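Postdoc handover notes: sequence design on the structure in folder B. Input tokens:
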């Protein structure tokens, strides 16, 4: 798994490149995301369009990253595969925890307000 990032105004767009966000990838993912936050990035748009599988450790890494923000920003998601979208629905993380969009443009526009 690799993270590719670029800025769109004050929004950091991060593309998660790799088919799995699981126990093998979650630690590196969380570490890089926390580094972004510590560098002052507090509006994060995650493109998960290449992620086909996510398990509880992937979810935990996302939640931990959100906790690191400490209420000073937001993480929004796009490009969820059907399997990943179902995981968010089952855990109810798609209701009031993460805002989920279909495209990167939708995410960025939503963060711009």
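Designed sequence:
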């Amino acid at each position: 798994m690799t993270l590719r990032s670029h800025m769109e105004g004050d929004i950091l767009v991060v593309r998660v490149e790799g088919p799995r966000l699981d126990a093998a990838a979650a630690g590196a993912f969380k570490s890089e995301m926390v580094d972004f936050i510590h560098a002052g990035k507090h509006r994060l748009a995650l493109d998960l369009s290449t992620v086909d599988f996510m398990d509880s450790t992937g979810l935990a890494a996302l939640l931990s990253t959100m906790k690191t923000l400490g209420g000073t920003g937001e993480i929004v998601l796009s490009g969820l595969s059907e399997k990943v979208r179902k995981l968010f629905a089952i855990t109810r993380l798609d209701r009031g925890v993460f805002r989920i969009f279909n495209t990167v443009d939708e995410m960025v526009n939503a963060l711009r307000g």
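Context for whoever picks this up: The two ends are 30 Å apart (CA to CA). Don't rerun without checking with the PI first.
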